[in-house]
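Most newcomers find our protein records easier to grasp once they have seen one. There is nothing in a record beyond a sequence line and a structure line. Getting from the letters to the tokens is the skill we practise here. An example says more than a description, so a record of this kind follows:
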Amino acid sequence: MTGYSDGLATAITISLCMIVKNEEAVIDRCLSAVKDIVDEIIIVDTGSTDQTKEIVKNYTQKIYDFKWIDDFAAARNYSFSLATQTYILWLDADDIILPDDKAELLKLKSSLASDADAVSMFYNLAFSSQGTVSSRLRRNRLVKRSKNFRWIGAVHEYIEVYGHIVSSNAAITHSPVEHDADRNLRIYEQRQKNGEVFSPRDLYYFANELRDHRLFNRAIEYYQKFLATNQGWIEDNIGACGKLADCFGELNDNENKLKYIYLSFNYATPRAEFCCRLGFHHLNANQLDQAIFWYKTATQLEKPVTWGLVSNDCWTWLPHIQLCVCYSRVGKYQLANDHNELAGKFIPNDPRIAHNRNYLKSLLT
């Protein structure tokens, strides 16, 4: 994906639109990284009581108050209504733009085709100890203002776009410091008390909040309700299978854990994330032949092009280092060493690689 179109390219102008509340720990970091990319910064404050507004004033005077009504989409739509430039970029306060991505965004700004209605970008969610991206997904991040795209959803909102969507290699990196971990669950619980009928998407994200709070039985109930609608986005269906497997694993229910791992294969060809789950299950059960089969399968799959969440570890080093363990246990030390070296190509400085190398050296000689 180049991130650019074959249409007529022209330099664009960008409004940055953000909603914030009590973000003094991160807002300066965010704005300092993006200020040279955008032409306008619009900040909608939903009730800060700290120094957020004072810090923002170093970057813009376009600061607006919005009474918080437990509705993220409403706040974001208000922020978009204040934009004046040709395109709108949205960020959260705990997002950052790394130097390479800043260069990519400046390049995109100068050469984006005029017929582009929206631009999707990677969203980096987690990094390995080696500094490589271990978890990412893709989101619509830059949108043409004249299209009047709207945000939908009180919680875990999304922007509904259509038309010509360009895929960029630029990434936004999520780098949270602290947040109100109970906020989203409180909103969902209140909406439920008010008698609101949840959409399939709400069922899925409500289940996620319950799972994050270790309310596994309730999470299972809502993941199952979500899947039963048969209306979910395929990547959310796959995600629900994985999270159901994790919930049942926490409850020591291996039968249902395996059921939902295999159910994921109904929605798409096997993903490395699920092959690694199966490998880990059989490894823990000392069923080494089965563990080897699934980890080996994970190394042979073609990584899908998807907007969904991807665990890069499962598509790179993880199955190889687990195969090192498996082959070592069955006495196939050369194969164990081979897979340890393959893992080392992805995580060369990881201490596990050196440990395995030293352990296998004496066995091989």
Notes: The mean pLDDT is 95. Residues 23 and 52 are 6 Å apart (CA to CA).
